[in-house]
Specification:
Blueprint lengths: L8 H32 L30 E5 L10 E3 L2 H13 L4 E7 L8 E4 L2 E4 L8 E3 L4 E4 L3 E3 L2 E2 L2 E3 L2 H11 L2 E4 L5 H6 L1
Parallel strand pairs: 5-8
Antiparallel strand pairs: 1-2, 1-3, 3-6, 4-5, 7-10, 7-11, 8-9
Length: about 200
Amino acid sequence: MTSDNQPTSAPDRRENIPRRRLLAGLAAGGAAAVAGCAGGGSESVSPVSIDDDQACDQCGMIVADHPGTVGQVHFEDDEPEGGRPAQFCSGTCTYTYRFDAADAGRTPVATFLTDYSAVDQEVFEEGGDTMFSSHVESEAFARETTLTVVARSEVIGAMGPDLVPFTDEDDVEDFVAEYGGEAMPATEVDRATLEAL
């Protein structure tokens, strides 16, 4: 057969291959963009300092006035916090609020807790209870994904038994040796963890 008699379908298929690849690439790029909108881009979110007169968004207590772990949660929307992250006087309040907000359809993009590996905490006794100082400056926070928390230790926070977070595993081991408790990744905290406190 001469080239004039060749069927035209084969060249058409070859021309469609690059187009299919282009469409597949566009679809993958679109999926990545959607993931970014849904919180996949949360690495750009940074913790903020908590004002001295800021009330806990869960329980209403003034955050800076109480001992122990402090937290903040950044959401895709800024309501009802009015353009700031939700802020909390304890790890317990942080997780309770976040779980409730997620159940109500809000999307958390980043959670930060006090990093007791990064601060010079004071340890003090009050009424027979052992407490750690609270820290509200932005540098005192670490992203939940980098933290290990200790639950059910002798150290209590603003709401009683609390979660005590660290980024350094040696600090976790030292803390557990001195104050007891059980260590777990902060990302594994769930409602059952809070109920067991």
